[in-house]
Amino acid sequence: MEIQNLISIETVLIAMTDTSNLRELVSGLLRYCPGAKIYVLSQYYEATCKAVGADLERMLILFDQESDTLRPDLVVADLRPLPEEGNPADFSEHIDYDGINLLWLSVRAYANVLVVTNPGNYEELIQKIAVKDAKIDLQTRLEFNDRVFDLLEKYGEEVIRRYEKINQFRSKT
Known about the structure:
By secondary structure, the protein is α/β, with parallel strands linked by helices.
């Protein structure tokens, strides 16, 4: 696989549970990457993107072997928060396995994909796209990947902490 320093932002996948600043992100993408296609995984996010005039196509299945696979240049995704309380027996159903897999697959493709997980980073992303003519350099992709690894590590630690708590509860009963 050849690693290019600059990649163009032409295809965007948005899969955010935290929709803070999503309008600003989409507005910036439309301004600096006017030809980019924006795919969204949720009806709520689709409505948000349409409100700022995005040309959307609804994405139902990300990696479908029977059709053309979506190859985004930019993945904007996070992990569904774990519930604070609930039935310990149901805990594993609340882990965002799909989000974890999406993030791992995306950072693995760093040569051709930028991954953003935090709405607080949208402004920085738009500034970088603006000065590089709708392109993102390798250094930026690597810096943002570090943030993804931090998110995955913290999420994994929280899952382990919750399972330890469940096991302590079970051993007392």
